[in-house]
Write a structure and sequence with these properties.
By secondary structure, the chain is α+β, with helices and mostly antiparallel strands. It folds into three domains: 88 residues, no CATH class; 172 residues, no CATH class; 81 residues. The protein contains eleven helices and eleven strands. A hairpin with a 5-residue loop joins strand 5 and strand 6. Helix 6 crosses helix 9. The chain is elongated and about 125 Å long. The model has no long low-confidence stretch (mean pLDDT 87).
């Protein structure tokens, strides 16, 4: 049987050892011995298919209550003795996002952008078809520089280069298991399992000064040197990841005179593919945090429910005690009445005094909870949270 002392002496921990530990003591103590958080240990057990005790297991044991059977350790893909964790201080340094990306990129074959776009990716083909349709229909757009409506024109050489780069990125991602598609907002996304990375490829914009003409009524400041600022696209491309990324992962690639985006595609693809496991780990952490929060809230609600029911039951008990006290008082009063000089044959409201005394005895019997003791507990057990509205 493995112990925490054994773990402290051995930096490499196997599936079998972790399985033994989590069934010997609570997870929080095992995690501390491994140099992990309890959430990190739970994630490790889930990833390596290591069964762990269900919630409330150790509380039931402490209270002497029965617990379910201990499930066996599944064989797993690599067996029970495979090393699944190395404690801090081992000779191997922890992998950083940069080192993982560099290693992944080194294993990637060269990703080349063709000089001519053939058999384009469906999303690229969709863009080309949409532009061709706009040109055929003679559609227009508002040009802010000239402040005139201009006709949509076919793609120029810069646009065709952008499409070739985008096509190479999409095909490279899909060749390695990712799914490239549009989301509900029309953004390009790469998806792996439940995790999504939104991205875009666009031209870099630059600010330009445009003179304000004297007849431009929209601008109060006019004159010889009056200008306004506009953003104009340049021929340089920018690839951007639009959603949140874990620390250490690059989010944009900008080309310049010396480095073109075609030379960066391998780094872009490697970064996105390496980011998917990191995003999955973060998502699992958030899910675990939400699960723990929901568990705490459920426990709080259950605790408040028990407390309210307990208060309501005590209130019902006090009602029975009050009824018993009243019945005892009336019983003593009825006995005192019988000891007086009463004419039992006298008629009052069509009943004799003797009949009235019998009615008093029956009323006391109905009102006294001790006449039916078991009914007291049945009445208390029937109390629920909403028995009393106040």
């Amino acid at each position: 049987m493995v112990s925490n002392d054994d773990v402290k002496q051995n930096r490499e921990i196997s599936r079998q050892q972790i399985y033994d530990l989590v069934w010997q003591q609570p997870m929080i103590h095992v995690a501390k011995g491994l140099g992990l958080s309890d959430q990190g240990l739970a994630k490790l057990c889930k990833r390596e298919q290591i069964p762990r005790p269900p919630q409330g297991h150790w509380n039931k044991l402490a209270a002497g209550k029965p617990v379910g059977p201990k499930p066996p350790l599944p064989a797993g893909a690599k067996g029970a003795d495979v090393i699944v964790h190395r404690r801090a201080g081992s000779s191997e340094p922890p992998a950083t996002p940069k080192s993982q990306i560099d290693q992944f990129r080194a294993e990637l074959p060269d990703i080349r952008v063709p000089e001519r776009l053939t058999n384009p990716h469906p999303l690229v083909e969709e863009r080309i078809a949409f532009r061709d349709e706009e040109v055929r229909e003679g559609q227009t757009y508002y040009d802010h520089r000239s402040e005139k409506w201009q006709k949509v024109v076919p793609f120029d050489s810069a646009d065709r280069r952008l499409l070739r780069v985008l096509d190479a990125v999409c095909k490279s991602l899909e060749a390695r298991g990712a799914i490239v598609e549009k989301n509900q907002h029309g953004e390009l996304t790469a998806r792996s399992g439940q995790d999504v990375i939104a991205f875009q490829l666009r031209y870099r914009l630059k600010q330009v000064k445009v003179p304000i003409t004297p007849d431009d009524w929209r601008w109060s400041f006019k004159g010889k040197n009056a200008t306004r600022l506009l953003l104009e696209p340049t021929g340089d491309l920018i690839f951007e990841i639009k959603n949140w990324m874990p620390a250490g992962f690059r989010r944009n690639w900008r080309e310049g005179p010396k480095h073109r985006l075609e030379q960066m595609i391998s780094d872009i693809v490697a970064t996105m593919l390496v980011a998917f496991p990191a995003l999955a780990a973060r998502r699992e952490e958030r899910e675990e945090e939400e699960r723990r929060y929901r568990t705490r809230e459920e426990q709080r609600r259950e605790r408040e429910e028990r407390q309210r029911i307990d208060r309501n039951r005590f209130r019902r008990l006090t009602e029975h005690a009050e009824a018993w006290r009243e019945a005892s008082l009336v019983r003593d009063f009825a006995a005192a009445l019988r000891n007086t000089d009463l004419d039992r044959e006298a008629v009052i409201d069509e009943m004799t005094v003797g009949q009235w005394l019998d009615w008093v005895d029956a009323a006391i019997e109905r009102h006294d909870p001790l006449s039916h003791p078991s009914a007291v507990f049945a009445s208390i057990a029937a109390v629920h949270r909403w028995t009393y509205s106040d």
